[in-house]
Amino acid sequence: MQDFTRRTLLQGGTALAATGMLTGPALFDFAKAWAQSAPWKAEPGAKLTVMRWKRFVPAEDDAFNAMVAAFKAATGTEMNVFSESFEDVQPKASVAANTGSGLDLAWGLHTLPQLFPTKVLKMNDVADYLGKKYGGWTDAAAKTCKQGNDWLGIPVATNGGYMTYRKSALDKAGFKEFPKDFPSFLEMCKALKANNTPAGFALGHASGDGNSWLHWVLWGHGAYTVDQNDKIIINSPETAKALEYCKALYDSFIPGTASWNDSSNNKAFLAGELYCTANGISIYVAAKTDASKKELAADTYHALWPVGPVGKPTELQLALPILAFNFTKYPNASKAFVAFMLEKENYEKWLDGAQGYLTQTLNGYESAPIWTADPKNAVFSQASKRTLPAAGIGTVGEKAATAIADFIVVDMFANYCTGTKDAKGAMAEAERQLKRIYR
Amino acid sequence: MADVAIPRAKPHMSEDSAWTQLKHNRNWLGFWFMVPAMAFLIFFLAYPLGLGIWLSFTDTRIGRVGHFVATENYEWLWDDSIFWLSVFNTLLYTFVASALKFAIGLYLALLLNENMPFKAMLRAMVLIPFIVPTVLSALAFWWIFDSQFSIISWSLRHLGIINQNINFLGDTTWARICVIFANIWRGVPFVAITLLAGLQTVSPSLYEAATLDGATRWQNFRFITYPLLTPIIAVVMTFSVLFTFTDFQLIWAMTRGGPVNATHLMATLSYQRAIIAGQLGEGAAISSAMIPFLLAAIMVSWFGLQRRKWQQGENND
Predict the structure, then answer these.
(1) Within an 8 Å CB–CB cutoff, is residue A424 touching chain B?
(2) A186-214 pLDDT, tens per residue?
(3) Which fold has domain B80-312?
(4) Which residue from A94, A315, B78, B317 has the least number of CB within 10 angstroms?
């Protein structure tokens, strides 16, 4: 037992100041000033339990924790942050939504807030505030979080994935720069294979990598799972063309892509067996930070996804929205924390820490220093702009999220490419499953 | 106790209220002694099972209460080729893996039952695959069968036997072989050690007598070991079949049901549809569809165990 005297309290205060020093006095001062003037005042004695996805880049986590510490110091809000792996975030958030307890904030993937629109705290004021201050939200980011005119969550960032390739292999195959359309991309993959420096994209149940590149192929051909009115249109000549194109690509890939999960292409690329794939910036970051992989890092470049016959970018990037539950006892603290994270003083440092792994959803951050710090980072700044919402042209929401989670598009392509089903059979199976989900 | 209670109860019999009668009723008391166990079973076994079956008749999704849709989930699954593929995969997986586990396990048990140097150590070593956490061994197998970094492909390539990596988990047939192999590796110790325990209860004098009568080793096995071992075999194989049928971790860590659903078992498909894709009702229907198969497996061994013919040989009904 310790008596609380003025002296011990003072000591505590110094300790607190010391933590402030560690995370940067500027950040701490800013947080204090911000808390005074912010439109949302944290409830006295507020306590927030925050779940987030488990970081891939340690420095991103550090930047996040520094923000949390500054927020805690400035507002006196007790912060309990824990992280879960990608796969577990959604089930845990769903359970919290179901039982009405356990979490105040959840930072998840895809269209998480759309899964339980009746259980979230409307964030309209936060979205307005940030949108006005930082040049507006990108189209896809807004669609991901909005239901009608209501913001169900705030699109914190996008995890961009782009073409990652070895320049030496492309040079050898006779490609001065990375192809910009589908036919020349196929030509490049074939040439890479002929040189025994193959490309490879996951055709297995890889929720991130598999879904993103196969939706790109599908959408690039003007084919979609559903139209604007959520009518199923997967069984179409455009899809058939996409299947043909994908099969030709698959035949030029490194063997084994049908078994790949999200980490397979990272491993193969870093081991020097794979020369072109699509991935988050993590491959490059891993190579850059590994002293033994200096040459590989120097030879690794990024490029935008080639544009398909439809003539506009059709990327599928991973949205990372945060939501607050409406059963939280501290709605103002929750809103304040979300707004606080996205303020320039925090956000740009955070993007820095993420090293390109996170891309802004607010247009004002396009000039953030991270995108010019290394010219190879630049393409990733486009992720939130060039992506379509996860639903393609259909309604964003639970149904579209289910279709992605159940690998309907991935299985359709895999069925055809591995020769398990013909084009008609593969499309019919996807159509039947989609009808069930969109009933 | 009984003769103490009767004389005391008798004189009051005529004017006893129903409550006093009840108070002295031993069945009534017995019922209350059973209540904790019953509550435990109902709460932890019957309720979840019942809830699962109820969910399968609704369109519940994660985060939202469902409505009763009768057998709609089952009708949909009836025409779902992926579901039937998973049923086929599960049966193939269970049948092949269980049969091989039994064969190898019995062989190992017989081997370990012999007198040999370092017997205790060898017996302990057999258990190793069983001790390693399933997810760890599954991850190890995932590396062993990796499409780019497989140690098997690497060795064969360096020996000059093949010139391209074997597509272990990317080819449907290979993938099935690989997951079945991993399951066998994991399941053999359980069968072997349990059968070994059974073997040790067989009295050596039986073998001595048979040998004196000129029985061959095969006859020893066929007419002494095998009949005396059948009750244990029935129990072991029931468990083995149940574990294999409901396997989840191995598949999920190694293939996630891929390539193109070729290794999706009913358990993994149920998880994918219920938890990952959020359709609890449909996922519950898939796992409820496992119940008839599991019941059948239990019935076979249950009735088998009751029959003395199984336990004590052909002519002893």
Answers:
(1) no
(2) 999 999 999 999 999 999 888 889 999 99
(3) MetI-like fold (1.10.3720)
(4) B317
